[in-house]
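TICKET: design request
STATUS: open
ATTACHED STRUCTURE:
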């Protein structure tokens, strides 16, 4: 009959639409507005506080050294 051009009940255009939708949902970058948000790392929080002027340069370097030591397991 007329089922030769259909793949598993759907036309190839519908397969392409579904694949594009799945790609858009799972593979797009996270920093688009309205999408999932990444968790902030301690380093990014520290950099934001320094950029906003909430902490001094000395305090920034002290906290950064503490975080680097903590990450490398020296503590």
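STATUS: resolved
RESOLUTION: sequence designed for all positions
ATTACHED SEQUENCE:
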């Amino acid at each position: 009959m007329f089922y030769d051009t259909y793949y598993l009940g759907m036309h190839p255009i519908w397969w392409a639409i579904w694949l594009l939708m799945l790609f858009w949902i799972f593979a797009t970058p996270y920093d688009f507005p309205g999408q999932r948000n990444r968790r902030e790392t301690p380093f990014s929080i520290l950099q934001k506080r320094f950029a906003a002027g909430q902490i001094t340069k000395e305090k920034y370097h002290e906290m950064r050294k503490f975080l680097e030591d903590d990450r490398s397991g020296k503590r």
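CLOSING REMARK: The chain has a mean pLDDT of 79. Residues 42-72 form one domain.
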